[in-house]
Amino acid sequence: MSMTTQQQTALESLAGRALTEGEVTSIGALVDAWDTQGIADALSVGRTRVEPRLISERGVRALPVLPRSRHALLSELASAATAAPAWLVPTLTAVGVPADDHDAYAADLASAHGWLLNADGLDVGAPAARAMLDMIAIAVPATAAACTAVKALAEHPDPITHMQVALALQGAA
Asked: What is the CA 96 to chain-centroid distance, rounded?
């Protein structure tokens, strides 16, 4: 016996993504054995959730990345506080942001620097902050390691439990 289409759909819904052919085969054997913990473990690999996380300039300076990457990120944010950095318009254009929205992105970037200097910090779990860090990393490769490390602070493991698997499979029966 192998995994039914309904069971596969239920597990894909639970995982929040399509299963690969290899996963369908390997998890199918686990479904046959009703190994809900094994299925949960297989679906949980690499699964994360993003939660709110405030970081200040001090937190950026403490990141375990090369100092030049931390410095480059802080420098780019500082330059954005006074004027849009030279890379901003070409990068926004390259990723398809309409010209009418460029000023808004520049303002967001400038306010991000203000939040970093503020005691509260910048919420690196917020989608806008994460998108801004992605743009900075693309435009200024020297910041990539620091941008990745800052974003990782808001990422946490999000395992699927064997009970969630059991309920999904029972609902698919």
From this structure: 20
